[in-house]
Amino acid sequence: MKRVIFAFFIIMATTLEAEVPVKIKNLCFIDGYKINQVYGYGLVVGLQGTGDSKSSLTKNSLKNVLNSIGLQDENPSTKNTAAVIISAIVPPNLRIGEKVDVYVSSIGDAKSLAGGVLIQSPLRGADGNIYIVAQGKVAFPTGEDRRSGVKTSGIITGGGIAEREIKPDFLVRTADNKDAIQLVLKSWDYSTADKILKALKKKLKRSDVAIAENGRISVTVDTEIPLVEFISTIENIEVVPDAKAVVVINERDGTIVTGGNVTLSEAMVSKRGLTIQIEKSDKKVSSAYIKESSTVKDLVDALNAVGASTDDIISILKGLKDAGALHADLVIR
Which of 184, 157, 94, 78 lies closest to 130, judged by CA? Predict the structure, then answer.
């Protein structure tokens, strides 16, 4: 039987010796302190005959652009022009003059945006205000996600310039009229939330710490120190999160990623074509006995040792999950 070594990575995170403290800023985000989305409409010009051919929207837009610079043309050609939707993601603290990447996508029948240049176009937020003005040459991503042939969606790296500031509003008023910030766990877990609460209470003696509605952790602001220093103190407090047991399988490249707390109950595994040497015996059978509290790492190491294929190991893990012997969420991609 041909032997295939299975690519396996294990992250030990829950044994006493391997407990790794994590900063609160890597486990939570501050409610109200968020990124923002903006979008707009524009024209890409300079195409090599691959622009919109039948779009009245493109023709009217081009006429308006020409009129704005004092040129008159009632029937401009659009074969070198394409109508596009432009979008961008801006940071919570957007400053005037800051540059962001802008994504450009055709909305007409243009065959390609290759070689085109987006002319100056505004991007608006949900409130209708202009936050970004974009312009520049459209480029295209390379690598796995690149689509050969038609190129109707691209990016202008650093092509958007901020015209308006964004100041996040993340302070809330409590019932006793104090300012507070609310922390939101990126992945809710009661045990981790309890550890964070205890760590905050231990460190912040002058602040009230409690669970607010919707699972947020409310922390009243200590007015005796600057707000930036106060938030920095919170962000850098370390706790050991209680990670949920998860096994992630990538069937395409044969990779398993799992936490060290993933265990198996007692089970019998038998699969045609596998031969296991039974301990203290010369007998060979096509099955393996898994002791209670064994880990996924133990199982994979044993299967690799007898030359199990990647498909064999994935099938066995799926079967263990279905049988209730694998105590973890199984994520297959």
Answer: 94
